[in-house]
Amino acid sequence: MSKSKSRQTRPAAFSSSLILIASAGLLIAATGFAGPSGKFERTYSPQGAAHLTISNVNGRIRVAAWDKKTVSVRADAAPSVSIEDRVVGEDINISVKRNFRLSRADFEVSLPADSSLVLRNVIGNIEVQGVNGHISVNSIDSDIRLVRVNSPAIDVKVTSGDIYFDGELREGGSYSFQSMRGDLDVTLPGSTPFNLNARALSENINLGGFLSHLTGASRGTKGVSGNYLNGGSRLTLTTYEGRILLHKK
Description:
Layout: H1 2-27, E1 31-33, E2 39-44, E3 51-55, E4 61-66, E5 71-77, E6 83-88, E7 91-96, E8 105-112, E9 116-123, E10 126-129, E11 135-141, E12 144-149, E13 153-160, E14 163-167, E15 174-181, E16 184-188, E17 194-200, E18 205-206, E19 214-219, E20 223-228, E21 233-241, E22 244-248
Parallel strand pairs: 3-7, 3-9, 4-8, 4-10, 9-11, 10-12, 11-13, 12-14, 13-15, 14-16, 15-21, 16-22, 17-21, 18-22
Antiparallel strand pairs: 1-6, 2-5, 5-8, 6-7, 17-20, 19-20
């Protein structure tokens, strides 16, 4: 009698364990590494808007929006580079492990336009095209290019490098671009209202066609602030050794 009970309960317990393991698999990250050749290729299928984080050490990062629902990440890396990915729900985290050689890894990413991005790098240029989610970029030595973006919030900080932005500002959005040593080159539609706070501590500020429509302007020796078309989204531009160039399109 007890043996019969034991046979009946073991399959149920085993089945429950499988369910728990499968459920955990949806919540706990899947982790993988680049192969010996240095090639890293992954395709992710998030259920909602993706949140992609890439932490690189040395190499280029290029991100472009496409019309597919999947996220494609490819990296061409030196054989000594170790790349780890971790996925939890819509959060995709990809990181390059540091090593003494500072070996290079170049990333090419295609993702849906509504994805959010966090990009970190030490050395290597970063380019983002067509992305409409939140964007955060932090780097030591990089030129940063953001083109055709329409994000509700952007935060870019680079120690040494130029920042180029050509995109839209959303009403109520927050946009901050900061370089310790580099130029800030920003192109905006002439119909977009914004609140400007621009500081260039050692070089000049050129506001182009926006200057004549800047109200409540306050100009000091190192900066300019004011409202364009009665103000709207917050635009903060800061460079310590570089120029600020604002262009109207």
